[in-house]
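Appendix B. Chain record.
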Amino acid sequence: MEFFDIDKRLLEIDKKALEKSQKVFGRIDQITEYNQQKVLAAFIKNRVSEAHLGTATGYGYGDIGRDNLDRVLADALSAEDALIRHSFASGTHTLTVALFGLLRPNDKMLCVTGRPYDTLIGVLGIDKKSDGSLADFGVVYDEVALKNDGTVDLEGIKARLKQDKYKMVYIQRSRGYSLRPSLKIADIKEICDTVRSIDSDCYIMVDNCYGEFTEKKEPTQVGADIIAGSLIKNAGGGIAPSGGYIAGRADLIEKCAYRMTCPGVGREVGASLGHNRELYMGLFSAPHVTGEAMKTAVYTAALFEELGFKVTPTSGEERGDIIQTVVLGSADGLVAFCKGMQSGAPVDSFVSPEPWEMPGYDDPVIMAAGAFTNGASVELSADGPLREPFAAWMQGGINFHSAKMGVLLAANSMLKSGALKI
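Structure tokens predicted for this chain:
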């Protein structure tokens, strides 16, 4: 490593981790090529041209670039319709628009993947009161706990659906700050089939964050009615500067559009303000960037397996998202890991991250994220709450070769701090 001071013992383990990763890399390349061709076909089918990359202002009536991008995304995700907007502030905001768009007072929603991600708790109005939450508007929330091994309780879902009538079944694909397995497309299909065997009418919604383009199919192809995610994760390809998307059934997308702006107007307003080029470029790059992030995750798992840490998923497992968890076992280890990863970032490498009371989280959180887009977790980043089991949730890497160095620097930092012994 000519440009970085990495302990020679780590470099020997790096060679083993790379060798261990190669077979999995081949599988990732096959998925990436398939999805890249799928996205290219969507661009060609919808006749994307220079005219679609221009700027619209004001109300945005007749923004042909915005409207055509919706069609491109729908085809790329095998959905009837889609909304993709730079104005969605985050993945949580995007999910919130979909939830408020589809649910009405006294409707009941059932989350079948246990407790949702931390930032959604306030939206739902569970555990603590949040002004303006779904609970404030009379939406009733229930959940089915995961089984002890972290997998979905299909029998529990059946029992709950037979017991009560729900407007929506909600699925969180990724693991959030837990060690449960992320859901693969086969798992989502099994859930959808289970739900439909009891109730053919309820909406099935999937929080697809971190999962786009990690497999050859999307949840919309196996029974999900609606999916949503962030553009500063997979679907924005490391180029989109902000935003989110909602995709699925055309009638449900219309309801979400009415919530996104206002009833009766929906998707007809909302100028793209010059962001079309970045959103088109980001979506086009998304399959490749997702593949690079998956390679980074596999390599991280292989390296830390060799160093004796518990990782989930393991380096050889098939994946349903880009997230890699490394159980570090101590607060010092987690902090050292994040500080080392920050030191390998292209932006703000000189910054030393510290745990802080982050809005929406119950515990102090430390985040390493030296990204070109602030908070973009498709770029190499790692974070975790300072609570047991003191795990780092790492994601991203817009190119594997630089991301690999960030991972090595994280391990090197732990070695220097005494949190890792070889």
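Further analysis of this model is presented in Appendix C.
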